[in-house]
Design brief:
11 helices, five-stranded mixed beta sheet, alpha/beta, D-Maltodextrin-Binding Protein, domain 2, single chain, 12 strands
């Protein structure tokens, strides 16, 4: 895993090597960086003795696949990836990305409607990712091809794909590349279900035990609250990721929904997981375990 694309990051976490290591991974994106800043840079810490956290970053599809191998104790994943992980991971009630009337955006250079994209090549950040699953729901008949999320816009411009799904700060930046919105897939979900969109989930390995999992949830909450209370310092770090749209992106995805997983989002998770099964990209799950801090 690498952070070579993300430079000028001057903060250095202090790691106590005498303690047991808890591995934490999140996407190299402004909202996740903002959420974890307090914990990663020792403004808050676990209350459980003998543990220290080590942080890594990688693209969302890589994190989905790493979670399948239980490579991390705490990891951010696409919500649609969770059913395949539910036997080993629980959902933390803090740190989750929620869209209320917005979410991943399907864009194109030449096409204007969903019907025009039937049979066309559409790039998605991965299968399964939430943007990819939404495209399958609302743009049936297209050919979905995996491509790294921050390279999709340029690939559409170059003619490699007919359209693509924008996620993270790409969904705010695509206009700078001369691309046009075909559909806001997050808005389509909200209109279709009457519920918010669970975009990404912050999950924890059940094998750590209930006490430590609850401590992790509490630490994640205190970390995000610290960033909100010390916005300038946390934002200075977070703004070094993404496409320069961090202020809007943090407002969209690091908010009260992120701090406390509301009941309507929990309902939306159930609807999403049922659709994941119907699409054939994940198993049926009967229960969602949520860890409150």
């Amino acid at each position: 895993m690498t952070t070579s694309l993300y430079h000028n990051i001057t903060h250095e976490p202090i790691v106590n090597t005498a303690k047991r290591t808890l591995s934490v991974a999140y996407t190299p994106d402004s909202d996740d960086a903002f959420n974890f800043f307090g914990w990663e840079f020792n403004r808050v810490a676990l209350k459980t003795p003998d543990y220290t956290a080590k942080f890594e970053r990688d693209h969302i599809i890589a994190l989905n696949r790493a979670a399948a191998q239980e490579a991390f104790d705490v990891v951010g994943v696409s919500s649609v990836a969770y059913p395949a992980l539910a036997d080993r991971y629980a959902v933390l009630s803090v740190g989750n990305s929620v869209g209320r009337g917005y979410g991943p955006v399907l864009v194109s250079k030449h096409y204007k409607t969903l019907d025009e994209l039937r049979g066309k090549r559409v790039a998605v950040a991965g299968i399964p990712t939430t943007g990819g699953a939404l495209a399958m729901m609302f743009c049936p008949g297209a050919q979905f091809i995996e491509h790294r999320y921050d390279l999709i816009a340029d690939a559409i411009v170059a003619g490699e794909f007919d359209a693509g799904v924008m996620i993270h700060e790409e969904l705010l930046f695509f206009g700078e590349k001369g691309l046009s919105k075909v559909a806001d897939l997050g808005a389509a979900w909200c209109d279709d279900t009457g519920l918010p969109l669970p975009v990404g989930l912050n999950i924890v390995r059940k094998a750590l035990g209930q006490d430590l999992c609850h401590d992790i949830a509490d630490t994640c909450r205190r970390s995000l609250q610290w960033s909100k209370d010390h916005f300038d310092e946390a934002f200075e770090f977070a703004s070094q990721f993404g496409r320069g749209c961090a202020a809007q992106h943090v407002e969209m995805f690091s908010n009260e929904d992120t701090l406390h997983l509301p009941e309507d989002v929990r309902q939306a998770m159930r609807v999403m997981f049922d659709r994941v099964e119907a699409l054939g990209i994940g198993p049926k799950i009967d229960q969602i375990e949520v860890i409150d801090g």
